[in-house]
Specification:
single chain; 245 residues; alpha+beta; 64% helix
Length: 245
């Protein structure tokens, strides 16, 4: 079985020789044997014990607490619980860092699309990123509620052409018109737009938003702050925008 000197076990566990000596002095890492010349020698089990001690110290446990824990009849069960807890915390930290990395990558991608760089532009991108999930929820509701009407529309047109059944199309029209108005009002109460010139976040009137030219992510509007008329970026309306609307 391998034997390790004080310097060797210190190197294996990433600590100083003085740390190993201190743990020996405090009685939590006693060497397995002494050489004929009086040198402390540590076994493989001692190395494992040292690594456990280092782990517990990293968790903030005091030397006295570690001594009491290792003196328990079944210290392994407690240490296993601590290991599980540490594993959970590390996984949460990894998830958090991955989310931060994703935001950083989105910010970099947004900056590449800008023709002119400014602090306000970063603010716009940050605002869009922060509202991205909420805007996605709004679009999902729009899709799910509008899908049955789309199916009814297509079915009624097919039946009218192939079977001459026209009343189903009339039924769709009677439902679709008020639905379109009601849902549009619901939708525009929950979205806002960022002016590309002055970077103001604003809510247009229902009439202007309803009839404006648009793409999936923008709408051609007039900014109430600077008067710019052009395509503005759509975002979910924040609380401050909704309250002022």
């Amino acid at each position: 079985m391998s034997k390790y000197t004080t310097g060797e076990i210190a190197k294996l566990c990433g600590v100083t020789v003085r740390t190993v000596q201190y743990y020996d002095k405090r009685g939590i890492l006693v060497p397995s044997e002494l050489s004929e010349g009086g040198r402390r020698l540590y076994s493989e089990d001692d190395v494992k014990r040292m690594k456990v001690i280092c782990f517990l110290r990293d968790l903030g446990l005091s030397i006295d607490s570690i001594r009491q824990l290792l003196a328990e009849e079944d210290p392994g069960s407690v240490i296993q619980l601590l290991l599980d807890q540490q594993e959970t915390e590390l996984k949460e930290e990894i998830t958090e860092r991955e989310e931060r990395l994703k935001k950083l990558q989105e910010l970099k991608a947004g900056l590449k699309s800008l023709t002119q760089f400014s602090i306000e532009s970063i603010g716009d991108i940050a605002y869009i990123m922060a509202n991205k999930k909420e805007l996605k929820k709004i679009h999902t509701v729009m899709l799910l509620t509008g899908l049955p009407l789309c199916i009814l529309q297509v079915s009624s047109i097919i039946l009218w052409i192939t079977k001459g059944i026209w009343w189903l199309f009339l039924t769709w029209a009677v439902i679709a018109v008020p639905y379109g108005v009601i849902f549009s009002r619901w939708y525009f109460r929950r979205v806002a737009y960022i002016c590309p010139q002055c970077h103001t976040v604003f809510k247009p009137t229902f009439k202007e938003a309803f009839w404006a030219s648009h793409t999936p992510a923008t709408r051609k509007l007039t900014c109430p702050s600077c008067g710019h008329h052009g395509f503005c970026v759509e975002v979910a309306a924040g609380l401050e925008v909704a309250e002022n609307a």
